[in-house]
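Ops channel
N.P.: pipeline sanity check, posting one input/output pair.
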């Protein structure tokens, strides 16, 4: 299928008129009509109903439109995969409150000339999905925990940040005034993490942590977002949750939430960067060089069994 014909079809839809599409594409109105006509002959359907006010989609045109947009999106991604220097550096993080998002902000301050596109895929993209996205060139790099699984061909990973855990509680919680809380003290207390998926690498992390230290991690309840969870914590006597030291949450002063360090041992989540070592965006090397691994203390911490303690490989720039 000729993509220029598909692009012209979408331009007519977005502009509402053949004339508007011609102006957008920089071609004549006659050329627009010829392209649309050729596409209609190829598909064997009428895509538009011509009216005095312009072009209105037929039922077949409405059915074809989402697929036309998908084709053009695929074309854009394909070009970006082999011509990364012509677009911003695209980096995926779970959400903008986690430590990796803060690391990217520091990178942007150090390299303001690098145009940056921060993608927040959230829990929809676990390790396997993020690695596949990097391999396909959908993103240039991604921050994820990397369990002991094979990476797709062409993709490399390296540890970049070890994030110590804290317990987040409201002012009425028994641990609210503690300077720290030990893992033994947490046994039997409800740690609320709604929506935590056991199939993700972070789900595996918390499952191993809970099993080893007899923790009660409650994943029940609908996920209404961080704001609702913070509101629940503020008024609860028994609910708490884990947060990373490097994560950033904001709440009204009246909530009076407390971050309590967890000790004996301190659970630490290892963040890695995934990137392609072939056809890489030119700025990936600068990002890698900027991310110097913060090694965890040698004693007093707990790391998941799948962490190999690897740092960032030497730069190949």
């Amino acid at each position: 299928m000729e993509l220029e014909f598909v692009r012209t079809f979408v331009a007519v839809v977005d502009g509402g008129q053949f004339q508007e599409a011609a102006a957008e594409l920089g071609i004549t109105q006659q050329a627009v009509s010829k392209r649309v006509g050729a596409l209609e002959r190829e598909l064997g359907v009428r895509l538009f109903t011509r009216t005095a006010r312009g072009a209105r989609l037929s039922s077949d045109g409405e059915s074809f439109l989402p697929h036309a947009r998908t084709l053009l999106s695929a074309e854009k991604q394909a070009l970006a995969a082999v011509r990364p220097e012509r677009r911003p550096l695209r980096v995926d993080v779970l959400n903008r409150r986690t430590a990796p998002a803060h690391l990217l902000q520091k990178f942007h301050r150090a390299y303001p000339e690098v145009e940056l596109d921060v993608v927040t895929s959230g829990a929809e993209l676990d390790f396997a999905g993020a690695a596949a996205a990097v391999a396909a060139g959908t993103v240039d790099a991604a921050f994820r925990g990397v369990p002991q699984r094979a990476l797709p061909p062409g993709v490399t990973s390296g540890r970049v940040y070890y994030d110590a855990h804290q317990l987040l509680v409201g002012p009425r919680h028994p641990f609210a005034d503690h300077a720290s809380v030990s893992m033994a003290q947490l046994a039997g207390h409800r740690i609320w993490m709604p929506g935590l998926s056991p199939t993700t690498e972070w789900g595996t992390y918390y499952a191993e942590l809970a099993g080893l230290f007899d923790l009660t991690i409650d994943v029940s309840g609908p996920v209404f977002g961080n704001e609702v969870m913070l509101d629940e914590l503020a008024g609860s006597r028994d609910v708490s949750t884990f947060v990373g030291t490097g994560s950033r949450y904001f709440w009204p002063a009246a909530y009076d939430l407390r971050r309590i360090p967890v000790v004996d041992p301190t659970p630490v989540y290892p963040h890695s960067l995934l990137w392609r070592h072939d056809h890489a965006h030119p700025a990936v090397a600068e990002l890698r060089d900027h991310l110097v691994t913060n090694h965890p203390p040698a004693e007093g911490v707990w790391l998941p069994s799948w962490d190999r303690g690897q740092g960032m490989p030497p730069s190949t720039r």
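N.P.: looks fine end to end. The chain is about 35% helix and 20% strand.
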